Each structure stands twice: as C-alpha cells, then as structure tokens.
Amino acid sequence: MITALRLARMKTGKTLRSFANENHFSEVMLSRIERGQAYVPPNWREKLAQALGVRVEDICDPVTGWPRLAG
Predict the structure, then answer these.
(1) Between 16-23 and 42-52, two packed helices, what is the crossing angle to 10 degrees?
(2) Which in 8, 21, 48, 50 has the greatest CB count within 10 A?
(3) Sign of torsion, CA 57 68 26 16?
(4) If you average pLDDT over every residue of the chain, what do you get?
C-alpha cells in the first residue's frame, strides 16, 4: 500500500526528512500519515497540498483528513 501523499512527495525527488524540514512539518507525523497510520491535521492540509503542487482532495479526504491510496 502506498498513499497518494507519499507518491506525490517521492515525485518531488525529496526525502521525507528534507521535505518535512523545508516545509516545517514534523518528520515523525508526516511519516505516520504517509503510512496511513494518522490523518492529515486540518491546519496541514492546504499547506501540504501546495507544497506538493496538488489539491487537498488528491492526497487526503478533505473532511476526515485520512490519506488516500495512490492509484
């Protein structure tokens, strides 16, 4: 299983650590979200989507924040 968030981040060519640091996200939390173990907090959704160049609904459910699967 790979989340759309992880796939989008990988397409940027950045590691989890560098992407998290550059965009001021918690590396641990971002890792949990990418693995489908946590939801995207409301205050992260728009910023995360913008950093990846995608829409919020492309990477997570806009209401619950749970990450979407890639594909």
Answers:
(1) 110
(2) 48
(3) negative
(4) 98
